[in-house]
Design goal:
Order of helices and strands: EHEEEHEEEEHEEHHH
Number of helices: 6
Radius of gyration: 19 Å
Structural class: alpha/beta
Strand order of the largest sheet: 5-6-7-9
Strand content: 25-35%
Distance between the termini: 30 Å
Shape: flat
Helix content: 25-40%
């Protein structure tokens, strides 16, 4: 079996309608890529989603254009299917190249550790239609929220798993001191977005659609680094 790790949301067809109505039944980027690789290797392929909270596919079926000074939603419908397969094929090619250049691990044992982390909470807008681009967002604190970070070591590989969807800059911070660390989100559940401080400065969609307040991502990164350090010892 093969584990393939990408920091991208499998959301090319997210919310899109087919031209005759209804939605396509699809594994999107993850499923199409895995299907291609399974044909190549004749083995199961498991997609691990990385810190993709702020990483959308390069092209998506639905988007927006400006018309008469207003944002108008567009949908490519069936025309998005070839675009989906093309992007999945690129991902599959990169995975094949990575495996071609792979080297055997020096050790193959498995180790596991976990730790709780308490993060600052905030109130979330339940109606997503009320979220919109803005220069300043109003964030209302709401107590604290406990999350769990989990670390699975397979040989030299370290999979750091969390339920919230992290931004890529947070994953870079967590793995800065160890190139063998890979952050996996939506691990044993989901908790929406956990955005970094710079995203709060920019009032991004991820910060508005989050249960966690400013500073939460940095606190989780510190706890993750501590857990990784403990595992080394």
């Amino acid at each position: 079996a093969v584990l393939v790790h990408y920091a991208v949301q499998p959301s090319v067809l997210d919310g899109s309608q087919m031209s005759e109505g209804g939605k396509a039944v699809s594994g999107d980027l993850a499923g199409c890529m895995a299907s291609e690789l399974e044909k190549t290797w004749g083995a199961p392929v498991l997609f691990l989603i990385g810190a993709a909270g702020d990483q959308a596919p390069r092209q998506k079926a639905k988007g927006f254009v400006v018309k008469d000074g207003a944002l108008v939603e567009t949908d490519m419908h069936d025309e998005a299917i070839p675009i989906l397969h093309a992007q999945a094929a690129e991902m599959a090619d990169a995975a094949r190249e990575a495996v071609k250049n792979a080297r055997p691990m020096q050790e193959s044992g498995c180790r596991y550790a976990s730790a709780p982390v308490t993060l600052p909470g905030k109130r979330i807008e339940r109606d997503l239609k009320k979220l919109h681009p803005t220069l300043e967002a109003c964030y209302e604190p709401e107590g604290e929220r406990e999350q769990r970070i989990e670390l699975l070591c397979i040989g030299g590989l370290k999979l750091l798993g969390v339920a919230p969807e992290l931004g890529y800059v947070t994953a870079q911070t967590i793995g800065a001191s160890d190139p063998m660390v890979r952050v996996v989100t939506l691990w044993n559940g989901g908790a929406k977005y956990l955005a970094d401080t710079r995203s709060y400065d920019r009032a991004t969609y991820e910060t508005q659609n989050s249960f966690f307040a400013r500073g939460g991502a940095e606190r989780l990164a510190e706890a993750a680094a501590e857990l990784i350090g403990q595992m080394k010892n």
